[in-house]
Amino acid sequence: MAAYTLARMLPLLAAVEKVKPLEKLQGVSGQFWLKVILAFILLAVAISVIKKAMGVNRIFMVIICMVVCGLCGVYWTYERTEPAFLTPIIEPIARSGFLPQKDFYENKQQQDPTTKDGKKPAPAKPAK
């Protein structure tokens, strides 16, 4: 049985073009290698930062983590770039109006500056 399947596969194996690994690597772009090197550098930096952080008092680590998470949350609320799984959490915070939102300010900038009675304000006088 094994000889039969091997005999059937020999023509298929012969038809497959032999590509050497070095030839495959030559086809990879330079940007890929740059990203790989950058990833290794970031990994090394992250490991060294984590090792240094292990010696720091835990209360300072908690404060730093809370500040980073808070800044990230405010950024997500302002730009609305949160991951999809966090949208149910960020949506009520964004709609509450407590934190600023980018689209609110963009809409406000596009509105025509009129007074309450519908008249346009007088032009500003030049400074002396």
Strand and helix map with partners:
Elements: H1 2-15, H2 21-26, H3 30-53, H4 58-79, H5 87-95, H6 102-110
Helix pairs in contact: 4-5
Provide structural commentary.
There is one protein chain. By secondary structure, the protein is mainly α. It has a domain at 32-110. The protein has six helices and no strands. The chain has helices spanning 2-15, 21-26, 30-53, 58-79, 87-95, 102-110. α4 crosses α5. The longest helix has 24 residues, at 30-53. The relative contact order is 0.04. The model has no long low-confidence stretch (mean pLDDT 78).
Radius of gyration: 30 Å
Quaternary status: single chain
Beta-strand segment tally: 0
- What characteristic shape results from the CA principal axes? extended
Q: Helicity level, as a percent range?
A: 55-70%
Mean pLDDT: 78
N/C terminus separation: 101 Å
Low-confidence stretches: none
Report the portion of residues in β strands. Answer: under 5%
- Main sheet summary: none
State the secondary-structure class. mainly alpha
N to C succession of SSEs: HHHHHH
The DSSP helix count reads 6
Quickly describe the structure.
The protein is mainly alpha-helical and 128 residues long. Helix content is 66%, strand content 0%. The chain is extended.
